[in-house]
Amino acid sequence: RLKVLEEMKRAHEGYYASVRNVLRDSGRDFELKKRMEGVVAELIRVPKEYETAVEMALGSALQNIVTPTEQDAKYVIEYLRRKEYGRATLLPISAMRPRTLDANEREACRVDGFFGVASELVGYDAKYRGVFENLLGRTVIVRDLDAGIAINKRARGAFRIATVKGDIINPGGSMTGGSVQKREFSLIGREREIEELKKRMASLAEGLAARTAEAEAAEASLSGSNAADTFWLFIENFIYFFSAKFVKNNLFFAFKAHLCGFFKAYAVANLRDDSSSALHCRLQSYLLPALAFFLY
Question: Could you tell me which residue, 247 or 227, shows the higher pLDDT?
Fold first, then answer.
């Protein structure tokens, strides 16, 4: 899914042909690239619950191209004309002025179902503040049309109102709404989903690394156990050889068994660095009877 979304982003799918073409050309034309900051849809960060409201409120402005200055905007317009790519709207940062609600208009919004001014509910880099306060500074987001109508009456249709379902009450009172066409992705939703998928993949990679470390630790522990068994086999064979040469009575075989048990437990303790009281008890249970047999 992430690969598909990133490929769609690289191909600028979903944009008008004129915008898509100029964005594509900027990838290989440095002079053109430095004249553009990006497209509104790529420069804004919108919480998932407000995506539909913001997308409907911005409409085609989502595809406006942001430039540093008016001269940069002029350059891009001339480029579009020269290439016969069509038309696009440019937003020079140096020329964009904030359009926000005044104190009385904010007071009119104090009704149940008001979520906030759109420009204050979204995220963007500080240098784009003038752009987004111009686009969304006089748009408020509400829960539903009932809340929107109440605010519109109090504010006398002075600003745009958007519901979380995408219905719009325009300045002056006209209303736009209905069903929203279901799509696999939206321009602003695609940016959010890419970031979410990247974070999820990073989290999964960390989990996989932790599991791998645990598996390696378990394998090392198993190797230590095998080394202890090898050491134990050596001690047992040594004692068996000793008993065959010098001891003929059955008592020594009991001594051998306890002494071998002691060596085995001792080897495991050293190789695993196990100093628990339970293991000490095991060592004593082997060693003391072995000494008793030896003294006997």
Answer: 227
Phi-psi region of 96 (alpha: psi -120 to 50; beta: other; left: phi over 0): beta
Q: Do 267 and 228 form a contact (C-beta atoms < 8 A)?
A: yes
The candidate with the shortest Cα–Cα distance to 175, out of 185, 183, 163, is 163
CA–CA separation, 33 and 23 (whole Å): 8
Is the Cβ–Cβ distance between 162 and 53 less than 8 Å?
A: yes
| CA distance linking residue 261 with residue 272, whole number of Å | 16
Give the pLDDT of residue 211.
Answer: 79
Per-residue pLDDT, 187: 80
Secondary structure percentages of the chain, helix, strand, coil, to 5:
65, 10, 25
Query: CA-CA distances (angstroms) from residue 79 to 33, 39, 82, 216, 264?
Result: 12, 16, 5, 59, 83
Closest CA relative to residue 40, chosen from 188, 194, 192, 196:
188
Rounded to whole angstroms, the Cα distance separating 24 from 36 reads 12
- Asked if pLDDT for residue 23 goes beyond 80, the answer is yes
| CA-wise closest residue to 190 among 25, 41, 33, 40 | 41
Please give the model's pTM, rounded to 2 decimal places: 0.65
Q: For 81-131, write each residue's pLDDT tens digit.
A: 999 999 999 999 999 999 999 999 999 999 999 999 999 999 999 999 999
Cα–Cα distance measured from residue 60 to residue 86, given in angstroms and rounded to the nearest whole number? 15
d(CA 70, CA 195): 32
Phi, psi dihedrals of residue 267, rounded to the nearest 5°: -65, -45
How large is the average pLDDT for residues 140-144? 97
Which of 63-72, 88-97, 174-183, 269-278 bottoms out in mean pLDDT, i.e. has the lowest?
Answer: 269-278
Residue 199: is it exposed, middle or buried by C-beta count within 10 angstroms (0-12/13-18/19+)? exposed
Say how far apart CA 124 and CA 188 lie, in whole Å: 12
pLDDT for res 18: 96
